[in-house]
Fold this protein.
Amino acid sequence: NKKVVLRRYVTGYPTAEDMEVVVASGVPLRAPRGSTGAVVVKNLYLSCDPWMRWRMTKHDDGEAVPAEDFVLGEALVNYTVGEVVDSTHPEFTAGELVWGMSAWEEYTLITHTEGLFKINHPDLPLSYYTGVLGMTGLTAYVGLFEVGKPKRGESVFVSAAAGAVGQVVGQLAKIAGCYVVGSAGSDEKVNLLKNKMGFDDAFNYKEEKDIDAALRRCLPHGIDVYFDSVGGATLDAALLRMRTGGRVVVCGMISQYNLPEHQGVRNLSCLIPKRVRMEGFSVMDHYRLYARFEDEMAGFIKNGSVYVAEDVVRGIEMAPEALVGLFSGRNVGKQLVAIA
Ligand code: NDP
C-alpha cells in the first residue's frame, strides 16, 4: 500500500522533500468483520488542497486550527475519489463510487464514514468530485450564495480566480447575473477566465503589481462582493474599492499561510463608512446543502454553463510536488493526482 507521509513538520514554504512516498506492508482489502460501519476504499484520485498546509505545522495545544496536525509517518488525511472494495456499513456496498475524507494512499480503511459521499452523477468525469462537484465546488457555492448573497447586476471580484474555488465562484456569479472580475497569477490563467469561463474581465496581479490601479480600471464603480481566497495585498486593495453595503467573503488567505507572521491589513477602517460586512465561513458547516448543490452543479456542467479547468498529474509519486505547487500558483485549475 503506497502512501504519502509527512517526514517533518514545516515552517515557511513547504517543499516536496517534506513528504515522501513509502510502501507500507499489508493492504487493507477487507473491513474488519464484527465492525458495523467500516469501508475500504481504493483511492483513484487525490485532491490537493491548501488547507493541508495548516496540518503540516506542529501547533501548540489550544491553538485555533481547522483540524489536527498530521501525524509524522502516517498517510496524509484529505479528500479523495475512490471505489468501495469492501464494506460492513449498511449504506455502502463494494463497487460503489464515493468521494470524501480518506487518505493519500492506495487503499484506506475508513471507520468514520460521516465524511464519505456517494457519487450520484457517474456520467460526469469522476475527477470532478475532487473539485467542482466536491468540497471546493461546495465552498464556492455556499461562500457566494450563503455569505456573499450577490444580487443581479452587482459587481463581484474573485481572487485566485482560476483555481478550484475561484473558477466556480466566478461562473456561479455570472449565472446569478453579476458583473464578474477575477485576478490570477499568469496570462494563461487570465485568458482562461476571459475566454472559457465567461468572466467579464480579469487581470494578472503578478504582472500589474498595482492591484488598486487594476481594480479601478476593471471595476470603476467599485465592488459589491469580494470573494477573498488570498488575503494580504489583494484584500487591502479590494477593501478600498468596496461599495456601500458590500460584502467581503473571507474564504481563504493563501498569501499568508507560509509566512512566519501574518501581514497586517491596513484598510479595514473602510468597513465603517461603507457599511461593509466581512465574514469568514467554513464549508464544514454547510454539508446539509450538499445534495442540492450536487444536482444543481451537475446540471450546470451538463448544460455547458460551467466550464471545468483541472490540472491532473499522474502517479502517487507526483503528489508532493503537486501539493506544494499550489503555493507558487503552478496549478492551472483544480489540482489533483490520478493514482489508479
Ligand atoms: P487553488 O486551486 O486556487 O490554488 C491555490 C492558488 O492560490 C494558486 O494556484 C495561486 O494562483 C494562488 N496563490 C498561491 N499563493 C499565492 C499568494 N502568495 N498570493 C496570491 N495568490 C496565491 O486552491 P483552492 O481553490 O483549493 O483554494 C482557494 C482558497 O480557498 C484557499 O485560500 C483555501 O484555503 C480556501 N478554502 C477555504 C475553504 C473554507 O471552507 N473557507 C474551503 C476550501 C478552500 P495564482 O496563480 O492566481 O496566484
